[in-house]
Amino acid sequence: MESVIYRAKQGEHIPSFLGKDLSPNNIEVFTNHWQHPGSISPPRWSSGNTQAAFAIYTDGSKINSQVGAAFCTFGPDGDGEHLYRLNDHCSVFQAELTALHQALRWKRSNWPSEHFHIFSDSLSSLKAINKLRPKNNLVEDVRNLCDNSISLHWVKAHIGVAGNEAADRAAKRASEKPDIDIHLGVPERSFRTTLRKLLHAEWQIRWNTDRNGRFTQQLLKEVKPSRCISNTYISQLVTNHGLCPQYLKRFNLKNCNCRCGEDTQDDVPHYVFSCPLTSHLRTSIKRDTRISQILADKRLETEVVQILSYVYHQQESILELVD
Ligand SMILES: [Zn+2]
């Protein structure tokens, strides 16, 4: 997966990843422009003062898989709004930053010498701008436009601040525009999620159709990266691969039967659920206990470990060689 991400970031086309075409793979790539630390001035922050003469409210939004960014301007010569639709793959974070970026560009070309107060309800974008060395070119662009004529404000969303409400509505309308105005790359995080989903789906298909591991497949029908059985005795039970006559015969290791003579299967579940030779170790586990119940109960798991380790240590007296 890492190699696919690396190749995609290099701009390489990946025509088939598990049968899916991942090109054009326009991933958002960070280009490091070195800046002298002395030339980086921190953005100016202000609190309160929502009655500024020149104010801009920005917002980004993602609704029904469509993304919009907008900013609303409030000044002595009247109010205005600017709406941009972004690619559907864009994140809300990208939309919020785009709104700020466009607002700053508009300000610089129309009112270069006036002081402006810019309001955003996106704490994550404002925090990103505040970083000395952001690892995102859009954040860098926004930062570089924040000169002394700009004061940034964080405004709480959905508490009825008129400018913020207007920007919120404008961003929603921006996402409904028929055409894309600004094309941005796929955020690396979304690309990773897509790859992970594809890999997971493929794993499930293989798990459902592979001829190996059928015993386990009946128990654990759904594949999960979070599931990890580290205890060898528990995994013996889940896979039915462990010290038992059935397994030893199947792999031509030893021709033997269980000395109890009760069960022709003589597999791992035989020792866990029914063999009389291990009955003294069985207190909570019953014949009808399901393996899924055991996996969900630490007490039952401990019992399985005790039973199977007993079988391992007492194999000489439990297994009966067949001549
Ligand atoms: Zn037995």
UniProtKB/TrEMBL annotation:
The keyword Signal does not apply. It is an enzyme of class 3 (hydrolase). It comes from the Eukaryota. Signal peptide: none annotated. Residues 50-176 form the RNase H type-1 domain. One of its GO terms (biological process) is DNA replication, removal of RNA primer. PROSITE patterns: RNASE_H_1. GO terms for molecular function: metal ion binding; nucleic acid binding; RNA-DNA hybrid ribonuclease activity. It catalyses: Endonucleolytic cleavage to 5'-phosphomonoester. Coiled coil: none annotated. Its EC number is 3.1.26.4. The keyword Nuclease applies. Gene3D superfamilies: Ribonuclease H-like superfamily/Ribonuclease H. Keywords: Endonuclease, Hydrolase, Metal-binding, Nuclease. InterPro entries: RNase_H (IPR050092), RNaseH-like_sf (IPR012337), RNaseH_domain (IPR002156), RNaseH_sf (IPR036397). PANTHER family: RIBONUCLEASE H1 (PTHR10642:SF26). Belongs to the RNase H family. This is ribonuclease H. It comes from Araneus ventricosus (Orbweaver spider).
